[in-house]
Amino acid sequence: MSIPVVIISMLLFLILFFGIGFLLNMLLRKTWVMAFIYPLIVMWIVGNVSLTDYFTQPSNSFASVYTNVLQLQSADILILGTGFVGTIVAGIVIRLLRKMGYQMF
């Protein structure tokens, strides 16, 4: 992957998961909900396994995800890590807004 593609992908993942995390935090009133859900999303993105296989064949599914995670390239790790940073920043922003007196819903 070229460097501009990696930088643009990192920016998109940061903004995407910041937005999703901000909306979930705002609607569910749980500050860190997206930070706990994000690893499950990463497992779903990285693993080439359907969602039902995690319940019907868990040992094969998690073994496949484990091998796929070990085979990730550094660019993929940077992109996925930036998405996690976006969820953390969304939690911090929601906390600051609530501390300043803003109420969402």
Report on the structure:
With 105 residues, this protein is mainly α. The chain contains five helices and no strands. It has helices at residues 3-28, 33-46, 53-56, 58-70, 74-99. α1 runs parallel beside α5. The longest helix is centred in the N-terminal third of the chain and has 26 residues, at 3-28. The protein starts with a helix and ends in a 6-residue tail after the last helix. The mean pLDDT is 89.
Please report the number of helical segments: 5
Which outline best applies? flat
End-to-end separation in angstroms reads 42 Å
Bin the helical content.
over 70%
Average pLDDT number: 89
What order do the helices and strands come in, and which of them pair?
Elements: H1 3-28, H2 33-46, H3 53-56, H4 58-70, H5 74-99
Helix pairs in contact: 1-5, 2-5
